[in-house]
Amino acid sequence: MRQVLFILNDPPYGTERSYNGLRLAGATAKREGTEVRVFLMGDAAACAKRGQKTPEGFYNLERMLKGVTTRHGQVGVCGTCMDARGIAEAELAEGCRRSTLEELTDWTLGADQVLVF
């Protein structure tokens, strides 16, 4: 099993870096024999906020994260970054969970490939 880790740093909207990272993560998660992990840190922690409402036809990062988790991908959100932005664990989108730098370290060392957006 090939493990690919995506680390996202940018906010969910206003820049397309997190959007593009999740596009690639979702496409990678569809591949047989590939395990995808996504770690959201810094302003990217807001990507996992539950209840995002975007205009019709506009991308929605909450739905994109669900596309990763429904394919057995894991999404961790930096707890320190959540606290700094006032995001409670109960506010996280389905399939996303509070995580730690320690877990990110384990994921990084265990990954075959690490992509940073």
From TrEMBL:
The lineage of its organism: Bacteria, Pseudomonadati, Acidobacteriota, Holophagae, Holophagales. SUPFAM superfamilies: DsrEFH-like (SSF75169). The gene is ychN. InterPro entries: DsrEFH-like, Sulphur_relay_DsrE/F-like. It comes from Geothrix rubra. This is DsrE/DsrF-like family protein. It comes from the Bacteria.
